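Its record is set out here:
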Amino acid sequence: MNRTLSIKPYGFYLIALVLFLSSCGSRKYTVRTDTKAAKAADALANLKSKPLYRFINDWTGVRYRFGGLDKSGIDCSGFAYLLEKEIYGVTLPRISRDQARFARAKSFGSLKEGDLVFFSFGGNDVDHVGVYLNNGFFVHASTNRGVIVDDINLPAYQRVLVKSGSVN
């Protein structure tokens, strides 16, 4: 009885399986670095202040709640208030309009990590605030998405940006 003949058909399948599996392992995957999420992650990775990085990481995703000041919900001015107090030791007023008056005006091009950016979505008065990070990104409590890192160069923000300033 010749047993090697009965193994040969399976040998072909075994070789085909090994070639298939090895080709899957050598496939090159590329990571897109031009997406909004990748750029936001890069802005976080490039923060000079590690406590600021940890603070943002700890608060990211906390839902928006008007007048909120804790992890069950926070508004934009409450987030800026807590961040500036915990990271920089600066006590801001509680309302974004008053925070804008408190901040020393600074040109958009000279913003540094921790500076404030102010917006007016509902008219002439400041009604939203965020904290500048770097490379055109800022962190804020969005009414729709909660605490998030966003691109300030988006037209939706550029149209309503009314002031930038420093409190540090």
